[in-house]
From TrEMBL, chain A:
PANTHER family: FERREDOXIN/ADRENODOXIN (PTHR23426), TRANSFER PROTEIN, PUTATIVE-RELATED (PTHR23426:SF63). This is Ferredoxin. The keyword Iron applies. It comes from Polaribacter pacificus. Keywords: 2Fe-2S, Iron, Iron-sulfur, Metal-binding.
Automatic annotation (TrEMBL), chain B:
HAMAP family: FENR2. It comes from Polaribacter pacificus. This is Ferredoxin--NADP reductase. Homodimer. Belongs to the ferredoxin--NADP reductase type 2 family. Gene3D superfamilies: FAD/NAD(P)-binding domain. FAD binds at T14, D33, Q41, Y46, A86, F121, D287, T328. The keyword NADP applies. One of its GO terms (molecular function) is ferredoxin-NADP+ reductase activity. Keywords: FAD, Flavoprotein, NADP, Oxidoreductase. Binds 1 FAD per subunit. Its EC number is 1.18.1.2. The keyword Oxidoreductase applies.
Length: 110, 351
């Protein structure tokens, strides 16, 4: 069994949470945020993780190398609000051991 | 006033399947949905996405699932109030409920089943200061009456099909059409993108990319928008109407004010018994409800709808005894006079 990794996630209230995320459960970042209830139910992952709603948008604050953005994620971010240069959709980022120490901030709800 | 046995709020998969289970019990149903078509998320958000966990369907497109459900319930002749949002509910002296929509359509039923999924779909509003102040005073999030824009200067923002299609349509109506999008690429049908390109080339559409509307100009009504374009200074674009088209987002909406017990944006129900809410006669089924161990899956919604209908029957007919029958045994009697039943075995005697 692979080890858990540590993630630092700033919620929409500005509170920083340091949490452990499993690398062996095929979870994505949005699902980790939901499982730790870092955002109210119904405000994150609304489309279920299909890159179709942008409710899981987050800002990547550390310099980890993340998987390249796919066309669905890219086009969804083209229409999302509060988008920055470091915006990503949490649902499109699978948790891997290389992400240990990743720091993100949840984008405002929209 | 529309009257029925079970008033279903939400025409997604759970709401649609409720019609079937109610029909087996000879209960009539009417559905209300804020969207203009049945199917809920399946038809609005991901009609072309395959679903893999519907029993007996190794794979089915969400839109096809809606079509199959509509086909399955056709014989029970459900009524629909589509494109209207359930706004208020009032309990009557006889114990029934009257639900009124935002357009004033009234519905009366002894049983209300909320199958509202994630809620009613509301337009996604861009984070522009004081945009609410200009709503219906030059800012509209959807186009209901195209004639409103005749000979007007219209600004549309967005990069999807709605923004493209309405920009194309309004070129024949409005005095001017400006389409503003944050990217040069559009997420729409190729035909629509090409048509906008043609209209831009012929000067019929003013296309501003990569750019976005960041503010609104006006006093009592909108007179223009502030545009932020990459590598340029912000500028004001005069306009009579600004139409941001950024899709829809589900919100629990007015249901949240009906006195129902809400937890984590969902309606608490009694899952040990019948998925009834804290208000007797009002049930919540599918993604809209919550209880210990809840799973937001279509198949769970089907199960909840089935149990809920049995309970609803007992509420409507407290003195009648009912024994659950298998459709393989009892067949299905449609309200339209049709009957489906298993073929009878052919018995032949042997001399």
């Amino acid at each position: 069994m692979e080890q858990d990794i540590t993630l630092k996630i700033k919620d929409r209230e500005g509170v920083l949470h340091e949490i452990l995320a499993p690398t062996d459960m095929a979870m994505n970042l949005m699902e980790v945020v939901r499982s730790y209830e870092l955002a109210p139910e119904g405000t994150i992952g609304i489309c279920g993780g299909m890159a179709m709603c942008a409710s899981c948008q987050c800002y990547v604050e550390s310099d980890h190398e993340l998987p390249e953005m796919g066309p669905d994620e890219d086009m969804m971010l083209a229409e999302a609000f509060h988008v920055k240069e470091n915006s990503r959709l949490g649902c499109q980022i699978q948790i891997t051991p290389e992400m240990d120490g990743l720091e993100i901030e949840l984008a405002p709800e929209s | 006033m529309i009257t029925t046995d079970i008033l279903i709020i939400g025409a997604g998969p759970t709401g649609l399947f409720t019609v079937f289970e109610a029909g087996l019990l000879k209960l009539r149903c009417h559905l209300i949905d804020a969207l203009p078509q049945a199917g809920g998320q399946c038809s609005e958000i991901y009609p072309k996405k395959p679903i893999y966990d519907i029993p007996a369907y190794p794979e089915i497109l969400a839109g096809d699932l809606t079509d199959k459900l509509l086909e399955q319930i056709k014989q029970f002749e459900p009524g629909f109030t589509l494109g209207e949002r359930a706004e208020t509910i009032e309990k009557q002296e006889d114990g029934s409920f009257v639900v009124t929509t935002n357009k004033g359509t009234q519905h009366k039923a002894p049983i209300v089943a909320i199958a509202g999924g994630l809620g009613s779909f509301e337009p996604r509003k861009p984070p522009i200061p004081q945009i609410e102040k200009f709503e219906d005073k030059g800012v509209e999030y959807m186009i209901r009456e195209p004639e409103l824009y005749r000979d007007k200067d219209v600004v549309i923002s967005g990069g999807g099909d709605s923004a493209l299609d309405w920009s194309i349509f309004l070129t024949d109506v409005a005095k001017s059409v400006t389409l503003i999008h944050r990217r040069n690429e559009f997420r729409g049908a190729l035909d629509s993108v090409e048509k906008v390109q043609e209209l831009k080339n012929s000067g019929k559409i003013n296309l501003i990319t990569p750019a976005e509307v960041v503010d609104i100009v006006g006093e009592s009504k909108l007179t223009g928008v502030v545009v932020k374009q990459k590598d340029k200074e912000n500028f004001i674009l005069e306009a009579d109407h600004f139409i941001p088209l950024f899709g829809l987002s589900p919100k629990l909406g007015p249901i949240a004010n009906w006195g129902l017990e809400i937890e984590k944006n969902a309606i608490k129900v009694n899952n040990a018994l019948d998925y009834q809410t804290n208000i007797p006669g009002i049930y919540a089924i599918g993604d809209v409800n919550t209880y210990p161990g809840k799973l937001k899956l279509i198949l769970c919604g089907f199960h909840e709808a089935t149990l809920m209908c049995q309970s609803a029957y007992q509420r409507i007919f407290p003195n009648k005894k009912y024994v659950m029958k298998y459709t393989t045994v009892g067949g299905v009697d449609g309200f339209d006079g049709t009957r489906k039943e298993a073929p009878k075995a052919v018995i032949k005697s042997i001399d």
